[in-house]
Design brief:
single chain; 113 residues; alpha/beta; Rossmann fold; 3 helices; 5 strands; 34% helix
Length: 113
């Protein structure tokens, strides 16, 4: 990417990167570190043409495995579609340099936040 002077580094995380909750500090600290590392990469390599973005995915992703285990009985609106997440990540990876995003939050409209 450095040789080409362009590229994208996309990092996924969740809302634990911006807030901690009771009994989950061990997890929040790892997600926060991940976000800060991504921001450091963005600041270092952005001026060299490499776009870095951090995606907060505040959702249960609808997969054949997650739906029955974690989302049994939940309506479709509760889940994020993997294909929709991929589409948004693709869009961000190809943004015009004049408007690069860093923090992008994705959540289904049925999510209570």
């Amino acid at each position: 990417m450095l040789e080409a002077g362009k590229g994208a580094i996309l990092v996924t995380g969740n809302t634990s990167a911006t807030r901690g909750i009771t009994n989950w500090g061990f997890f929040a600290s790892t997600k926060t570190a991940q976000r800060i590392l991504a921001e450091s990469i963005a600041r270092e390599f952005g001026p060299r043409g490499i776009h870095t973005a951090y995606f907060i995915i505040d959702a249960l992703i609808d997969t054949p495995r997650t739906r029955p285990i974690l989302g049994a009985g939940k309506p479709d609106e509760f889940f994020a579609k993997a294909s929709a997440i991929a589409e948004e990540m693709f869009r961000v990876a190809h943004q015009d340099k004049s408007t690069w995003s860093f923090t992008v939050e994705l959540r289904p409209f049925g999510e209570v936040w």
